[in-house]
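As noted in the main text, all predictions were made from sequence alone. Below is one such record, for Nucleotide exchange factor Fes1 domain-containing protein.
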Amino acid sequence: MSLVPVQKDEEQPQPQPQPQPQQPAGERQPVQHNHRHDTSLQGVLSWVIEETAGSGDRVVPQSEEAATSTAQNLDEDRRVFLEKFLGNLTGRDHMSAVKDALSTLLSGSDASEEDKHEALETISDEVEDINIAHDFLAINGLATIQGSLQNPSPEFQWRAAEILAHLAQNNPKAQAALAEADLLPRVLTLLSASDHNTVRLKALSALSAMVRGSDTLMHTFLQQPNAIQHTLHCLRHPTSSRLQIKTVVFLRHLVREQPSVAATLFEPASLALIANALTADADDQLWEHDMHLLSKLYDSNNALVSRIEAAEPAFPQMVDSRRRTIMALPQEDKDAHREELQHMQALFGDLQL
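Prediction:
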């Protein structure tokens, strides 16, 4: 058990040129914002980094080599923005890349497996942009992705599921298209039938993105035979803690949005799976999210603790052991587990925070 603390300036009349005071050595010159920008790599990166830097220090590359290094070290969100910006600046047609990728997927044996994997990756990256996602739907790109979803190769399956997750994320138009294409049952089949952790993780991500904010897809999910049980089975060992965490978070969302789901989770077999996901050395985030799910269930039925004890008699003792271990930590480390402790207290009481 790791227990690690997890306005635009108003226009002013142009003054007459004045001599500029000499800047102390090592002090940065103020950046002048002009409508004309240096179009070299260094100049473009300087402008973009300046415009997206926020309130922190602004580091402007001093050479093209330094500019390239700066780009490589940007955080993920700014790097993606920069790539999109540079693509637009140079006239790159993102849909051309998507169309080329679709052609590769449809080329049969003329393209290698690796080429097709790269094509799926290209589509996945591009459709994170909601406008490109809509264009992708307009050219019926979903029809090609369905083929990859049904491919027996796990790598094709998880890449196709990832595309569906990116399409559906906060995108009602895409969710409507996915509902019309009836793709949710196929994704659920991947979740239930595959023994490949990445396939199951990406399938669960797709299902989560599909149902969030879509009453239609939520209804479709809940109407599938054993949909909740198939989701719960992702908690079974051996599996990855990442998959278990995503499963617990998804179940909690279902309970919040559809309280009737709690009745299924109160069944002894379901409670046993939720309880058994936790072990003494389980991931800290899994402990926190699992306890949060259980406290959510407790809110709907305060008989939860007795039902857990009946389904998994050793569980309360394991939670108490975990709680005592956390309470023995230095205060700073203990504070990192405050939410977990609060959920434990809601369930079992007798804890002084």
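Residues 4-15, 23-39, 55-61 have pLDDT under 50 and may be disordered. Residues 68-217 form a domain with the Leucine-rich Repeat Variant fold (CATH 1.25.10.10). These features were considered when defining construct boundaries for the mutagenesis experiments described in Section 2.9.
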